[in-house]
Amino acid sequence: MKAAVIVFPASNCDRDLKVALAQAMGRDPDMVWHGDSELPETDLIAIPGGFSYGDYLRAGAMAANSPIMREVVKKAQAGTPVLAICNGFQIATETGMLPGALLRNAGQKFVCRDVDLLITARNERFVGGFEQGEVVRFPVAHHDGNYYADEETLHELEGEGQVAFKYASAEGELTDAANPNGSLNNIAGIYNKAGNVLGLMPHPERLISEELGGTDGKRFFDHLVNSIV
Amino acid sequence: MKARVYISLKNGVLDPQGKAISHSLQGLGFKNVLDARQGKTIDLDLKDMDRAAAEAEVEKMCQQLLANTVIENYTIEMLD
């Protein structure tokens, strides 16, 4: 299996993502610079976290218009799986690959901590390694993670099983206290209609070994790689 | 030719910065403040060109980059 990690100026989770993918795949992913206009042949595209272009204008706005993203959008439309984490999620919404937008956190503060997440929809490729209704723990680290979509879009996301993860208590309850950023309906991650693009604010690549504090991220990547191979 | 683009969050979209501003103003004793919304302006310096064509081009810029129409409204003002 081959994977490509897109690297923007001020991406800062690209190497974490490389380590997580390499651990699961047994080989390094290709690191692809934002200014490139061609993608190498790949079975998975990963858009990492960070502060691409310094979050100028809006988080992800500049990166969404970089040359490589035109290719990423084309590949996504053709069915290539895309994993968009944190700033990657913001970029994916800015390109229109995913609906809605990520606003400034409701509490105004940068939030950096582990969160519990309820797996809310079936998607064999991305979360087939978990049970639906299972609670997993990934860290969040963001200032603009407050998911917003208009009512009609929210209704569609919920109705079509496009909500991937919701912020929850350790017991899986969708409480306000468990919501770190004010996201509507506690939404932490969503799929596109076709189910081949996943965007999420939490960072599975940061919990891939006991030494780092947990292995839910390792389970996520191991399954993702197995399902693509 | 100059153009000014005003960008604001749509009604109903939470604006935590605007909320903080209104709370601060109220805390300073400006009791008449009911709410505040924060936006931004972008001033563009354009080549001399036909005014209508320039406005149409700025409109495209707003759609493609300057505003995210999922959450933001924009208005364009041609300045000269």
From TrEMBL, chain A:
Molecular function terms from GO: ATP binding; glutaminase activity; phosphoribosylformylglycinamidine synthase activity
Localization, UniProt: Cytoplasm
InterPro entries membership: Class_I_gatase-like, PRibForGlyAmidine_synth_PurQ
Active site: C86, H203, E205
Sorted UniProt keywords: ATP-binding, Cytoplasm, Glutamine amidotransferase, Hydrolase, Ligase, Nucleotide-binding, Purine biosynthesis
SMART domains in UniProt: GATase_5
GO biological process: 'de novo' IMP biosynthetic process
Signal peptide limits: none
Major place of residence: cytoplasm
Source taxon at top rank: Bacteria
EC number: 6.3.5.3, 3.5.1.2
Cellular component GO terms held in the UniProt record: cytoplasm
PROSITE patterns in the record: GATASE_TYPE_1 (PS51273)
Reactions listed under catalytic activity: N(2)-formyl-N(1)-(5-phospho-beta-D-ribosyl)glycinamide + L-glutamine + ATP + H2O = 2-formamido-N(1)-(5-O-phospho-beta-D-ribosyl)acetamidine + L-glutamate + ADP + phosphate + H(+); L-glutamine + H2O = L-glutamate + NH4(+)
Pathway noted in the entry: Purine metabolism; IMP biosynthesis via de novo pathway; 5-amino-1-(5-phospho-D-ribosyl)imidazole from N(2)-formyl-N(1)-(5-phospho-D-ribosyl)glycinamide: step 1/2
Self-association state and partner proteins as the record states: Part of the FGAM synthase complex composed of 1 PurL, 1 PurQ and 2 PurS subunits.
Alphabetical list of PANTHER family matching this protein: PHOSPHORIBOSYLFORMYLGLYCINAMIDINE SYNTHASE SUBUNIT PURQ
Job of this protein: Part of the phosphoribosylformylglycinamidine synthase complex involved in the purines biosynthetic pathway. Catalyzes the ATP-dependent conversion of formylglycinamide ribonucleotide (FGAR) and glutamine to yield formylglycinamidine ribonucleotide (FGAM) and glutamate. The FGAM synthase complex is composed of three subunits. PurQ produces an ammonia molecule by converting glutamine to glutamate. PurL transfers the ammonia molecule to FGAR to form FGAM in an ATP-dependent manner.
Name the record gives this protein: Phosphoribosylformylglycinamidine synthase subunit PurQ
Protein species of origin: Sneathiella chungangensis
TrEMBL record, chain B:
Pathway recorded for this protein: Purine metabolism; IMP biosynthesis via de novo pathway; 5-amino-1-(5-phospho-D-ribosyl)imidazole from N(2)-formyl-N(1)-(5-phospho-D-ribosyl)glycinamide: step 1/2
Upper lineage: Bacteria, Pseudomonadati, Pseudomonadota, Alphaproteobacteria, Sneathiellales
Stated name of the protein: Phosphoribosylformylglycinamidine synthase subunit PurS
HAMAP family linked: PurS
Homology family: Belongs to the PurS family.
Record text on subunit structure and interactions: Part of the FGAM synthase complex composed of 1 PurL, 1 PurQ and 2 PurS subunits.
One example GO MF annotation: ATP binding
Assigned EC number: 6.3.5.3
A Pfam family that the UniProt record links to this protein: PurS
Gene Ontology BP terms: 'de novo' IMP biosynthetic process
Chief place where the protein resides: cytoplasm
Cellular location(s): Cytoplasm
Source species: Sneathiella chungangensis
Any one cellular-component term (Gene Ontology): cytoplasm
Enzymatic reactions: N(2)-formyl-N(1)-(5-phospho-beta-D-ribosyl)glycinamide + L-glutamine + ATP + H2O = 2-formamido-N(1)-(5-O-phospho-beta-D-ribosyl)acetamidine + L-glutamate + ADP + phosphate + H(+)
